[in-house]
Amino acid sequence: MSPLSLFTxxxxxxxxxxxxxxxxSFEVSDEQEEDSVNDNSLKEEESDISTLLExxxxxxxxxxxxxxxxxxxxxxxxxxxxxxCTSRGxxxxxxxxxxxxxxxRISNQFSSRERSVIVRGLNSFKASTCVQxxxxxxxxxxxxxxxxxxxxxxxxRRGGGQVVSLSRRGCVYHQIVxxxxxxxxxxxxxxxxxxxxxxxxxxxxxxxxxxxxNFNKINTNNLGTPYDYxxxxxxxxxxxxxxxxxxxxxxxxxxxxxxxxxxxxxxxILRINRLYGCRKSE
Length: 282
Ligand SMILES: [Zn+2]
Prior knowledge:
Blueprint: H1 49-56, E1 68-70, E2 73-75, E3 100-106, H2 112-128, E4 131-135, E5 142-146, E6 151-153, E7 161-166, H3 174-185, E8 200-202, E9 248-250, H4 266-275
Parallel strand pairs: 3-4, 3-5, 5-7
Antiparallel strand pairs: 1-2, 6-7, 8-9
This protein binds zinc ion.
Residues 9, 72-73, 179, 183, 189 line the site of zinc ion (ZN).
């Protein structure tokens, strides 16, 4: 009900869609099964995470049953903001065998192609971390992936079923799937890191009025990892720009590419392994 507008993150080149056997029966009964919705051929200027998110999230938070969303982060009503909560118990639990199982459910709103993009994103975590997304059976806490109004997620485990929204209109891309799932695992945007002022300059004068909060710094736990322009959690240079001028400029070298990740970086992976104490931590 709050007409917040928002953003999201960058985009990707299309992901080659792998054919995973569908894991559960689902059908697409939607009239919206148009292939053009998720045309994988994003144009160069669109292939920026924050550009994708902004586009997909134009009307986010306007549905009656939608949570309040700031940028692409859903805000729990019992919490003033989305500060890192990982020291307060919002991590997902590790089982005795050292694996962090995160149950998921995928809504049947998605086409089989969209679903395979999502499953590929889910599966990408277990290759390099101890986090494993598994189909939910009876577990109490789980992520429920749905096509709602925009791309967004809560930060960390909320308890019970928590929505991760991947709108069929603009969110079903590999890097966005990973980005939203990283929020659900407890991570914030790279440019909100506590040490970001040593790595980027934020030009608030170019930011859309009312969107400045997207550039607030957060007292993040950086887990001893370096600031990473190539993180899938980093916004692009023109995120929330009101005048086509940059809003985020890397320092000291302003030419470094930012926000163009097409998948998790090695630092994104390292952070998961450190936050969750995975043994396979490099
Ligand atoms: Zn985000």
